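Protocol step 6 of 9: fold each sequence in the batch and record its structure tokens directly after the sequence line. For illustration, a two-sequence batch is reproduced in full.

Sequence one:
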Amino acid sequence: MTTELQKTAVLNAVEKASSQWVSAFNSGDAAGCASQYEKAAVMQARPFGTFSGTAEIQGFWQKLIDDGFSDVEYLDPQIDVIDETSAILTSGWKMNNASGVIHKELWVIQQDGAAKLREDDFEATG
């Protein structure tokens, strides 16, 4: 059973890592975005496709940044701690040229205590 202390640690790690991802994207740093994913992470970006591993994921974010997308903001994010090493984030989102929904960001605590994305499933709807 996960203790309140463990839940708080997971929540804090996910909030920090998610904030670092948003900062990287908004500063045009695709490598910084990709660094928030595990090496074998899978990202489903609807309707664009599925991207596996940090190199493909970085390529996706680089193209979006190159195409002028910026200023992402999460709308009413919810973080549900699953256990002492993982949590799921769901949220609406908007940016300068698009908006949508995050169906599932699975964040997993690494050996160093930081959270990284193992699964990312989001959709651009507008």
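Sequence two, same batch, same settings:
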Amino acid sequence: MKKLTFALIIACTLISCVSQAQTEKKENTVTEAIMGRRSIRKYQDKAVEKEKLQQIAEAGINAPNAMNAQGWAVRIAQNKELISGIRGTHGGTALIFVAGRNAVDCGLMGQNMMLTAYDLGLGTVIMTGPLGGIKGNADIMKKLELPEGMELQFVIEVGYPDEQPDAKPRKMDVIKFLE
């Protein structure tokens, strides 16, 4: 009986420690991702798994959006020929095209995607520079098959990072508390 009681005490203690560690990790995960994520412009020559890209996209479409309109479209390209044909890319192995009717909603979506990518060990950089070339290229626009009324807002390049840039200083004086 003593052995059983002792075993139960050990089991409960272990469960409590695991539960506490998971709770502590969950409490800091988002803030750590926000503070740790950087724009990556150098990538390893290693393809991103489709499952990870799916997870990133699903995190994106779970972003808050005005009146739950979900007025966006996500297109993911891993085709090397297509990716290399877009000026301004940095060697990532996937591109996520985000289109929508509301730029704010799309921005929230993009942030969800980039933080999820970071959590999965991937690097990202958000790009608007290539948009002119993409919008002016009828072949690419046709491949994107965007619904009517959707405007391409930005592209997120994704890949396994081959650099770890330091954080740039932030202007803390932009934060003011109103009395």
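Proceed to step 7 once all outputs are recorded. Observation for sequence two: The mean pLDDT is 89.
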